[in-house]
Automatic annotation (TrEMBL):
The keyword Magnesium does not apply. InterPro entries: AcrB_DN_DC_subdom (IPR027463), Acrflvin-R (IPR001036). Coiled coil: none annotated. It comes from the Bacteria. The keyword Signal does not apply. Pfam families: ACR_tran (PF00873). Gene3D superfamilies: Multidrug efflux transporter AcrB pore domain, Multidrug efflux transporter AcrB pore domain like, Multidrug efflux transporter AcrB TolC docking domain, DN and DC subdomains, Multidrug efflux transporter AcrB transmembrane domain. Keywords: Membrane, Transmembrane, Transmembrane helix. One of its GO terms (molecular function) is xenobiotic transmembrane transporter activity. This is Efflux RND transporter permease subunit. It comes from Cohnella terricola.
Amino acid sequence: MIIIVIMVLAMGVLSYTKLPMEFLPEADNPQVTVSVIGPGYDASSIDRSVTGPLEKALSGIKGKTNVFSSSGDGFSQVNLNFDSDTNMKDAKSEVEKAVNTVKLPDNVSPPYIVQLNTSMIPISFVTLTFADGVSDAEKVTLEERILNEFNGIDGVGSVQLSGKSQSKVSIVPDAAKLAEKGVPLQALYGVLQGRSASSSVGESTLDGQIVNLNVTSSLQDANTLKRLPVAQGVTLGDVASVTLEDKKESTFRIDGRDALQFVISKGANANAVNVGKDVGKIVDKYNEEISSVNMKIAVSTSEQVVHSVNSMMREVLLGALFATIVILIFMRNVRATLVTIVSIPLSLAMTLYLLDLSGITLNILTLGGVAVAVGRLVDDSIVVIENIFRRLQKEKFSSELVIDATKEVARAITASTLTTIAVFLPMSLLRGGLQSFLLPFALTMTYSLLSSLLVALTVIPLMSAGVLKNSYIKEHQPSQRFVRLLEWNLRNKWLPILGAVVLLVGSIATYVAMPKGAIDSSSAENINVSLKYKPDTPAAQVLENGHKLETYLMNREDVEWVAMSNGNSADAAKYGGVSSPALVSYMLKMKKGKDAEKVMEDVKSEAVHYPGAEINTSTGNFMSSGSSTQILVDITGNNLDDIGKTAEDAIAKIKPIKDVLKVESNQQEKKTVYTLEVDPAAAKAGEIVMQLQSMLNPVPVGSIAVDGQNVPVQIEPVLKPTSESELSSLTVMTEAGPKPVSSVAKWTKTEQATTFFHKDGKSYIRVTASVEPSQLSKVGAEIDKQLKDVPTPEGVKLIVGGASADQSADIMSLFMMMIVSIGIVYLIMVFTFKTIKAPLAIISSIFFVPIGSVLGLIVTGVTPDFTAIFGVVMLIGIVVTNAIVLIDRVKHNEEKMTIRDALLEAAGTRMRPILMTAIATVGAMLPLVFGSAESGSIVSQSLAVVVIGGLVVSTLLTLVIVPCVYELLYFRKSARQRKVAAATVREVAAQN
């Protein structure tokens, strides 16, 4: 046994070093996103020529529940949601096949298809800035070199790069000079044709040697381009200006300098901490070796993983310490305490080994499972050692006594451990995302509890035999006050039972009335700021004001650094990240100890200096999204006017509701669109489209090699109309020769939505209400109530969704799981006690859980969230443990006592182990109440408060009410026994 114990501890330590560390367990998001970027295209064109064909191609995908699409200026995005049981790898493959059949217009990017997974959560955000004087060619070389190094890290899944340079040569034709020289615009389109070549033309014998003959010519700078002939005696420089521009695909700046951003994600089953360390080494290496480079790790989630693991481990150790103190206080024997706490390291070692075998990673959920289970790890050992300890107070030590005392409680602790595990079996009934998150947590709990049972039945008796052999143990007497109180309760059992029922009804009513919040995953270390203009605002104006706000943010003393981004990049689109070109986003890193709320208020007050713009702030990080506390109202129908009117009515109803921070809809923003309606009898619309596209848009004409880099060359638009009259005076070629466009067509001016939304192919309007996180359930219910009064025309539907609906669905899933858990617990009890009535008394202890849980929430003022319900589910397994230990003793006693005497003896005897196990569990949970819960963790303060409150009250009520319920179930038999006992007493008295 000693060798086995050492081996188990060694395997646990080895497993801990081997287990991959990550922030969250791997879980697929049941959604596939298709993104397309089309710079220069308006929302209407994107909707018609990109989104429409994509939706049509994707309509036959199996397993999808619905399809949402959005088309805006320069981008299209289609989101397909799937059933939770869909294999997402197959779904993504099917979407790729469907999308590949779609023929998209010229000048739009290829479709980027992404299926997100929690393993894609970025490990590091690295910024790169260059010193002044570094050439574009050097920048590109360094970009690629660093990118390759990051991709070469063992365990890296992907590296996303934004802000990279895209040099181009711009040719701006001069219309007056073209006319003066008599050169048509079309002559410029072929200016590069045949100018660059590199080819072998044969071989020849020169001076007795065979040599190869090659022809080569390459254009390497803008000045050479200017000398190229476009007509007889006319060069390109005579009729156009030629410039080399350093244009960026998207803007990314750090502290006012243009920068590159590398977003590094790990691969599946890779160790997040190791990947993060390797990223740090590369950053240090380049900062030391190349003086012109300044690299900085802006955010590192691998550091957060280490922090999470360390803080959870700290809470596990603190929990173990509290449990030890509790045992020592009750036992008043150091040897017995040491024997008991051996179960903690042994059980943890076995748990880590089993997690390693199961391929489960070390993350905040599995560590949360350990933190919650640590109090239960000593429960079985406490019951075993307490029973041995109690027997040794009256009997002489022997090996047989230790074996017999262990056997006496073996059934009770096995049944109680199995019931706790059984609570987690219905995890398979939960929805996809919930199941992926809760299953690792449940398996950790299961492994911990099974390990602790095994230790309690093997190692604890063995150690007790060795450690307690020669120790003097003072006899412990049950509390006579408690026994007298219980006796009174049993005589007046309806009073305590009725009191418990009243408390139960009151607690449930109180919980229903309480506001339920969202899991708060914000961090005040970082602040997100957005500057949003109307989509028709010129890009130059957006960027100019973006730089102005950036300067203000950088000059604040409480901000460490400022990152600014604008525009869409191909790399971001690959991961589903597309945004309006009129949006500038900032991320602020706060200095330690500074007030984030004050910064947010000050930034919002700056809005007066940015007329026509909207400034929003939120706490969070690079991965934050405001959707967690948004309630969405989708209005669908066939008539856009009816939908629009209903949306306005819905907004009017939602706006006045308390704790609604902001209400907006996708149809509130409009922009002016001019549409040319061509007379088909006067001209061919297709030809006019081609002519106007070439005159109003840049036209690529080839590329040249600059410093070894391939640089595209494009002719800029010849026409830049600035008024309606200039639009009408445009000249186009028709079959009858050149004519003003106004003679063959008519421009019509309309106000159109800046973004088009479709749901399953139909137009819809989405109203988004941002809500105070702690009041999510209350506001959700009030919005539901108010929307019932909104009149809906025929065919128009209102569908409420978002965070509030998700929360309700998650809570319903957990309630369903709770009912199934109670059923499984009852079946285990029936098999254990081989009776139907006794398990009912044990199950009754579960109904006291809400009383303590709600009381705990009221006393602490903590807002219950989804994890609080999960805490109640866990309590089902923990609470019945105490009732099982009590009723098991009662059943043993009934063989030689009346039911009432059996209850009084069992309650007096088992009171100490029941209080010890409950207080040890509460002590182990205390660090979770006062510690800082990790963002995104299921082990929140709310869960800890619910478990502690529920356990304290239900333990006290279990000792008083369960005996009352038990006697009530056997009231005839008990009454008969008491009559017989009373008659016997009278007979004895008469004889005396």
